[in-house]
Amino acid sequence: MHNKTLTELAAGLRSKQFSSVELTQTFLGRIGRHETLNAFITVCEDGAIRQAHAADQLLATGQAAPLTGIPVAQKDIFCTLGTKTSCGSKMLDNFIAPYSATVVEKFERAGSVMLGKLNMDEFAMGSSNETSFYGVAHNPWDTCCVSGGSSGGSAVAVAARLTPVATGTDTGGSIRQPAAFCGITGLKPTYGRVSRYGMIAYASSLDQGGPMARNAEDAALMMQVMAGFDSKDSTSVDQPVPDYSAGLNDSLQGLKIGLPKEFFTDQLDGNIAAVIQTAIAEYQKMGAEIKEVSMPNLKLAIPAYYVIASAECSSNLSRYDGVRFGYRCQSPQDLADLYTRSRGEAFGAEVKRRILMGTYALSAGYYDAYYLKAQQVRRLISDDFKRALSEVDVLMGPVSPGTAFRIGEKTSDPIQMYLEDIYTIAINLAGLPAMSIPAGFFDDMPVGLQVIGNYFSEPKLLNIGHRYQQVTGWHLQIPKGFE
Ligand code: GLN
Prior knowledge:
By secondary structure, this protein is of the alpha/beta class. It has a single domain (1-483), classed as Amidase signature (AS) domain (Amidase signature (AS) enzymes, Alpha-Beta Complex). Helices cover 37% and strands 14% of the residues. It is built from 15 helices and 13 strands. The chain has helices at residues 6-14, 20-33, 45-60, 102-109, 152-159, 176-182, 216-226, 270-285, 301-316, 335-346, 349-362, 368-391, 414-419, 425-430, 458-471; strands at 40-43, 71-75, 113-118, 138-139, 142-146, 165-170, 185-188, 208-213, 256-260, 289-293, 394-398, 434-442, 445-452. The strands form two sheets. Strands 1-3-2-6-8-7-12-13-11-9-10 form an eleven-stranded mixed beta sheet, with helices on both faces. A two-stranded antiparallel ribbon has the order 4-5. The radius of gyration is 21 Å and the shape is globular. The termini are close together. The site of glutamine has 13 residues, from loops.
């Protein structure tokens, strides 16, 4: 049961091969058996079974929607009414949201079952899940390696078959990089396509929620639930939601693929480059044409991102003051002591580093030199993409410079960790959609291919992912011990 795709699960539920309660119990059993992966922060056993019973009733009366009765797990950044939402932080270890995120509500309305809340880097700041207050999530392909981050728990849970699908969020690579590290399919949608309401803010102008699944077909079904205008999110885009599954099989004959030459430099591990080249050759066999493009400002993406993301996070995280919600220190002496000790005791080192950098960049004397400059660079990067995507349909390249690294290998050097996102971050600065597709292995660890499209080209990206998955089997590989 646990190896079936969403389409197969939906068919199985309708033909009464199994009930939603049985399906839910299967996944809850797997979550329990593989607890050491540390994929979940909270498992919602009772709630899940209750939702599964309700779904079985809908199925029995023929009122089921496509995802009714299907288990889903949520990244612990999405607020869930009545269930702890920690955002991977000690600060919110005691936080029970008084409302649910729009994304969570949409899955509920679709009749799906929430298995629980997934581990993540603290406030989504990280590339390895190592900044989580709850500890690292282990990569099922090699449990000594990181899962990637920040949506590490989501990627692990999908790869290890602890849930059919999961949600993730991506501010600079957090859906795509863990998807690549764990051998699953992840889509970061166009900024504004999926509501951010109730999705705890890290860097509001970059954050975007999206699906993490085993294949593009499942990601399309998830997008159908997740996408859409939300009046509660002022940056949500009011555009009709297409049928994401309709064009999955469209021909790729004549597809123009751009290869940014700045992606294929010495910085990229030669073994990863070889996997990417093989994947691109596969597309050529399907009738695609290749063109080299240049995006000279890409090299500025990491510094610009770390100024903008830190600035926005320093502002967003100022609400955690020990007064209104979240952690409060013991017996504060006065108000200043309450603020400083609550924040000092509850935020982890990486979060503090970002708040410090961001506050500095936004301070009166440095605003123009850092924040304003970074925003100008951001425009140059967007223009690079605009130019490139006027010449070709999509861009392709790696997701990450290497495969999943060993736990602890990069924790002492933040810059090394920041460089993990060198191929993903620029896409968030431009607000474009991009996808990570399993494209092979190096040293028994998965490698992801990144496909970047124009604004609202999610159907095209899913089509490109799906066609590839019709002729390759990388997405079907299961880590040993999790079959
Ligand atoms: N690793 C990047 C960061 O730490 C991106 C994280 C993300 O996309 N949430 O900011």
